[in-house]
Amino acid sequence: MLSHDSIWAAIDRLAEQHSLTPSGLARRAGLDPTSFNKSKRVGADGRMRWPSTESIAKVLEATGASLDQFMRYVSPDALRGNPLPQGTFPPQASSIPLLGMAQAGAGGFFDDGGFPAGQGWDLVEFPAAPGRNNGVYALEVQGESMKPLYRDGDILIVEPGAQVRRGDRVVVKTREGEVMAKILARQSAKSIELQSLNPDHPPRMLDMGDVEWVARIIWASQ
């Protein structure tokens, strides 16, 4: 059963999954940054305020989340980490390819679209949305160059072919074989500007002709 608390908790959980505050999530969705503030969830007269279906639709579009994923967050059992009751949308574990970031720069592991190819991949279990089969894979962070956001041993789940927007965390592979996790600052038909995760590293500007592929990070095991 949908409730005022469970809907707002789902929005909070979706923001958390993307390392955003509720205000940051609203801003990414093109909404007033205060739209999801806790102070606005109950009116001055004590009446409950619900997020509009338009707001939820914009949030799903901005994060790339499916309605199935959002409904899993709505479930009180899912938020407590308990098994979901029959009739909801439980995550279905599936094996996806896993590769170390250092290996990812070598040839033969990806096709032209940035999808897994060739041999040498390990496997890791990841709960995918029902019916989802879009070639997601996992990269294991190696070293400290991505601190403080990602640490050695963290697993990044990457979705090749997904639409990327300014502010998204992405993995970029250059034609010279360099693989890096960055924040997309700006992209045009000719160039791409990337913000470094590690403040000790300056932003990067690359010609699109030097980029083999860009894939969106949809989850991290932090």
TrEMBL record:
CDD domains: S24_LexA-like (cd06529). Residues 97-218 form the Peptidase S24/S26A/S26B/S26C domain. It comes from Agrobacterium albertimagni AOL15. This is Transcriptional regulator protein. Pfam families: Peptidase_S24. It comes from the Bacteria. Keywords: DNA-binding, Transcription, Transcription regulation. One of its GO terms (molecular function) is DNA binding. The lineage of its organism: Bacteria, Pseudomonadati, Pseudomonadota, Alphaproteobacteria, Hyphomicrobiales. The keyword Cell membrane does not apply. SUPFAM superfamilies: LexA/Signal peptidase (SSF51306).
